[in-house]
Amino acid sequence: MERIEIDPKILGGKPVTKGTRIPVYLIVELIAAGMSPNEIVKEYPELTEEDVKAAVEYAAKVLKGEFIEVFA
Description:
By secondary structure, this protein is mainly α. It has one domain (4-63): Arc Repressor Mutant, subunit A (Orthogonal Bundle). It has helices at residues 24-32, 37-43, 49-63, and strands at residues 4-5, 16-17. It has a two-stranded antiparallel sheet with strand order 1-2. The longest helix is centred in the last third of the chain and has 15 residues, at 49-63. It is globular, with a radius of gyration of 11 Å. The relative contact order is 0.24.
């Protein structure tokens, strides 16, 4: 999970894509709304498709109970 970070100083410690203030939950919401990873990257050019994939993988691990804390 090298692309995801949790830092209490960024968005109150919510998981974000490293180097941005874009939270994992926002990426998951955008995918749920029907956006493709490519569309998300066009909307948020500071992200890469790999960042989008990492956010989805992180969310899946949290839901499976395999939560991995990643600190900056």
